[in-house]
Amino acid sequence: MAESAIISRHLRALWAFPGTELGVVGWPATKRERGFASWHYWWQAHLIDCVTDAANRTPTAARRKRLAALTRSHRIRNITGWTNRYYDDMAWLAIALERAERTQNITGARAALIALERRLYDAWAPAKGGGLPWRVASDYYNAPANGPAGIAMIRLGHVTRAQEIADWLDATLVDKESGLILDGIHLPSGEIETPVFTYCQGVVLGLETELAVHTGEPRHTERVHRLIAAVEERMTTNCVIHGGGGGDGGLFNGILARYLALVAMMLPGDGRAQIADRRIAATLVRESASAAWANRLEVEGEPLFGSDWSRPAQLPGGSAGAGRFTAGGSVTSSKVPERDMSVQLSGWLLMEAAYLVSAAGL
């Protein structure tokens, strides 16, 4: 039902081109949004990832066709190629397209992955004291770029580089008091920006879990153990993940849910700590999904998820108060966050994560 809601409310042909499909970033949509003047590269990457989830859950010709159309449309709308100036954006697209190619054999993804892989690998900048910058020519090196870049690197075969990224994150951005991952650091000044966001925790959990699987080195499972405890204590209430509002923040809690499910399914080890970590991760996903479903609105028989899964969703009154793309590179929330596709993608992402852990009996 979450999938159906996105398809009916948000998907439409790009500029009326045959065989294309892209996500309209608001519902109800403004004229600018319907015409894809606003389209938000990284939101579309998560749309591709969610469609891949659905195709893996129940493979159909329609889902494979949709994946191919979304991939093709992303390239057309980006105009200049597959890449852009933001390393976090490119990392998310690399993750999405690698999964689509590997699990659904989507043609057209290989050329994109070659371009994205080269940009992400070459952006590593230890000589400047950092991992990857947030965007080209930036002095800001942050978790939202390095976490997904590390996941992309390990899935594209660069395990050593992924491990370098994980080690840099652990040495640089772990808050000593809370145990959570801080947002980022300016280099070479060393000024740290201290906000903590749910998706930063999610990508580090995902990266460390996959490194634990690939390398067997205990430091990765130990980091997962510390971070799972911090997330449960500080980023959930009654085991429900905290919401991040709308705009870009609409995706934050869904991303954490995705990688908690990965921890629940993949974290290796038969020790008491690893068993407990897998159980906690699964519980946070299941309880968040139950809360989000209980607090959804039904609109024409399809769910509308809230930006805060612990509270009843609000119905957008129209297209007024749409979010906007700021000069700093982020997307602000709509006046009613539920109109943002990011919020609805988080709900779908959460439901797919809950399906995985429930189907596995976790």
Spell out the blueprint of helices and strands.
Elements: H1 2-10, E1 11-12, E2 22-23, H2 31-34, H3 41-57, H4 61-78, H5 87-104, H6 109-122, E3 140-142, H7 143-155, H8 159-172, E4 184-186, E5 192-193, H9 198-215, H10 218-234, E6 236-237, E7 240-241, H11 252-266, H12 272-294, E8 297-299, E9 302-304, H13 341-359
Q: Structural class of the secondary elements?
A: mainly alpha
Shape: globular
State the order of secondary-structure elements, H for helix, E for strand: HEEHHHHHEHHEEHHEEHHEEH
Helical content class: 40-55%
> Which residues form runs of ≥5 with pLDDT under 50?
none
Beta fraction of the residues? Answer: 5-15%
Commentary on this structure:
The chain has helices at about 1-10, 30-35, 40-55, 60-80, 85-105, 110-120, 145-155, 160-170, 200-215, 220-235, 250-265, 270-295, 340-360, and strands spanning about 10, 20-25, 140, 185, 190-195, 235, 240, 295-300, 300-305. The protein is mainly alpha-helical and about 350 residues long. Among the domains are: about 1-85, no CATH class; about 240-360, no CATH class. Helix 3 (about 40-55) runs parallel beside helix 13 (about 340-360) and helix 5 (about 85-105) runs parallel beside helix 7. It is globular, with a radius of gyration of 19 Å.
